[in-house]
Amino acid sequence: MSHTSSPVSALQTVVEAAAPAGAQITAAFPAPPTDGIDLVGPFQIGFYGLAIGLGILAAYFVASRLWKSRGGQPENVFDALIWAVLLGIIGGRLYHVFTSPDAYFGEDGDLSLIPQVWLGGLGIVGAVALGSVGVWFACRRYGMKFGAFADALVPGVLLAQAIGRWGNWFNQELYGGPTNLPWGLEIDTSQRHQAPPLGAGEDTLFHPTFLYESIWNLVGFFLLIALYRRFAVKQGLLAWTYVAYYALGRFWVESLRVDEMTKSTQWIDIFGLEWRLNMWMSVLLFILALGMLIWLWTRRPRTEVALAEELEIYRPGQGPRGAEDHSVLIGEENDDVASTTKERSAAAAEGRPGESEESDLPPNESDRPAESSSPAEQDRPKS
């Protein structure tokens, strides 16, 4: 049995059964009115990019509030987000390209499509992986503890994913198999859209998997917010909870999707289980996250001193950004010099020695009697 024959055959059977019933359903999830706003010439504002941008703004707002609640400086979030977004987009695109190589490196592939991110195709696994490298770099540069900062960041990341998934609706992509459910997704074939599975007609409805994942991520966002204070006992627990939660939801969402059914890297058969590549990736991430959660929990602080150290969000000897800024230090030094100069000037005006003049004398030197010029004068009685 090949890697694609069984899943494709099963999908064709589902389509044949669902399509006639789908044609009778009127209460369906509608297709988007358009995928963007046309500007002058070839330029366009894509709603896919707007959804991702709105998600990034939401992540920044949430992370700033959470980081500040632990005593951090909000500007740390902006610094880290720049690195995370830039590397995250690169990582997400690379993950998509190398796990879906046919459109780029296949027989009819087009390499010029690789940088066209606005057309869709960002793998969240690659985005989070390389984005985490950017966050780690920012933490090393600005003195934050990576685990503490990641805990403050992941709730906003999950909210950003909930918002960004609506970009798939505007692009009419990554939907699930045919369904007779009243919230089945309509596809407007007059717009750019993902190729429907074989046997699907214009009236066929599909699982709105983008909606399922968006709701799952939104519920997870509120869950992580509720756990934020409780998981302060060990840095990193919340971050790995996010990984486990998202991987669990992504597994069942992936099991519904029907995009790229014949892709060369799509189906992987392990131990007789023929699953999509992203389903196997979700399993691996869930196992890894579960192992990290157990390991971190066993290393949680058990004394008040250890707990106090765990609550420190900056590395020892380093504080919020700006506390050790060179200009601040120079300013404080100049203030000290100016203050000392004023004291010396006031002392000179009053005819008394300044502090620096007294400090130049040896200890108790001013209290000693003046030495005589000869031994005879030393023996002379004082009058």
Please work out how many helical segments DSSP would assign.
Answer: 14
Taking all Cα atoms into account, the compactness measure Rg is: 33 Å
Largest sheet: 2 strands, antiparallel
Q: Report the order of strands and helices.
A: HEEHHHHHHHHEEHHHHH
What percentage of residues falls in helices of 4 or more residues? 55-70%
Hey, roughly how much beta strand do the residues contain? under 5%
Uncertain residue segments:
1-5, 20-25, 321-334, 353-383
Task: Sum up the overall morphology in one term.
Answer: globular
Terminal CA distance: 126 Å
Strand order of the largest sheet: 1-2
> What structural class is derived from the secondary structure elements?
mainly alpha
Number of strands: 4
Mean pLDDT: 79
Describe this structure in words.
It is a single chain. α6 (146-164) packs parallel to α9. The chain is mainly α. 32% of the residues are buried. It has helices at residues 5-22, 47-69, 74-99, 102-105, 124-142, 146-164, 166-171, 209-227, 237-254, 277-298, 304-310, 326-350, 355-360, 375-379; strands at 36-38, 44-46, 267-270, 273-276. The strands form two sheets. It has a two-stranded antiparallel sheet. It has a two-stranded antiparallel sheet with strand order 3-4. The model is unreliable at 1-5, 20-25, 321-334 and 353-383 (pLDDT under 50).
